[in-house]
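Table S2 (text version). Query chain:
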Amino acid sequence: MIEDLKKQRNEVWREELRKSLKNKERIAIPRVKMPELEAAFRSRSYDEVNRGLSAKDALREAKRCLDCPDPSCINGCPVEINIPKFIKNIERNEILEAAKTLKETSALPAVCGRVCPQEKQCESQCIHLKMKSEPVAVGYLERFAADYERESGSISLPELAESNGIKIAVIGSGPAGLSFAGDMAKYGYDVTVFEALHEIGGVLKYGIPEFRLPNTIVDVEIDNLRKMGVKFITNCIVGKTLSQEDLHNEGYKGIFIAGGAGLPNFMNIPGENLSGVLSANEYLTRVNLMGANRKETDTPVFFGKNVAIIGGGNTAMDSVRTARRLGAERAMIIYRRSEEEMPARIEEIKHAKEEGIIFMNLHNPIRYVGDEKGRVKQMILQKMELGEPDASGRRRPVEIQGAIETIDVDMVVVAIGVSPNPLIPNTFSGLDISKWGTITVNRNTLQTGLPEVFAGGDIVRGGATVILAMGDGRKAAAAMHRKMKCG
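Corresponding structure-token output:
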């Protein structure tokens, strides 16, 4: 009855909002700009770069939403947030209601509002684009609503079903695992998340720097899951500390594998074993998770002056901007394609350029040269040009014969992708493992060949975005719940 009244009320005020401002007037409102720290300051600081919208700016941006009868923006969201509903709540200045709407489908709204590539997801489906107008800033508004709720101290929890006492195990506390755990808790299950590291959050903690995603934001989202009844066990390596049989013996009726993809890829070129050449995983984990950038920590990290990062994705941008903050005088991106082919978010490329990062596009390392102590001192680069598109749709980089360049470096960070750690896939007997080391699942349900075991996120995809991993978590939770109900 109460829900019917709420729905009725929402329809009334949404109709009132439609009448209060004509679509032509809404389209004419310019898209809001995100306030940012000044580049010269932030390139030496770990303070968050994007500062968040003011209430005034958020309410004005919310008015740009046309509240389409068939909102395609929802189709572009892997976790299916009711985007028009939460935005119209902001327009009506009911920000806490907007935050509640986000939590109906998203376990991590403050995280997604910061790191989700909205420009390729929900915003790419916005009807404004068909009208030659910029899309509604869905991500900025999502962050605003989540931050407003947290700062107000009035944090709400989603509605939980009555406990059914069924124990569910989650392996990995990254975005896929957290999303799955949140939904299963809503369904009434007794959920425990097992994390190999000493901190909860997976890639959200070890992979993304605090100038993009502060750890305090992640911790609040995790604490909300704890309040929903989700339990977390750290320093527990499934496959070493616990086995598949142990989980069964402890009464877990369902298992979701969300171990991520923590095995770094390298290029296998001469000199890659020199001191000073390391993976982005190691580099970012040392700094983000273990505080190697702080004087009081015992974790070592080399503070290079001429630092080259190999790759063009978000991890490469995170690494090169981290190097800049650690004092690099020349922090460089080395990427074998052009800037147009870079998979990194446009915002991250923009921020990197503003912070003085050097972009060496259409260059590919072919050898590293070491000094007498075995430390990297130079890298030899092959200049490239773009040929025909490859299987990914991007133009294939082709060598320019004889075009070789040598540059001085004292540190190289390789950020060309990751593969799943083989420990978990090899621990579970009966799993089907692909030639890339990923777990093979039913794409509709994310169920593996083992009836009680589901998997999602990077351990299935081989490396993707936070929001796609979260979408996997939701899909797997819904499928496991259906299976449990049917027996």
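Notes on Table S2: The CA atoms of residues 10 and 16 lie 10 Å apart. The domain at 2-32+50-152 is CATH 1.10.1060.10 (Fumarate Reductase Iron-sulfur Protein; Chain B, domain 2).
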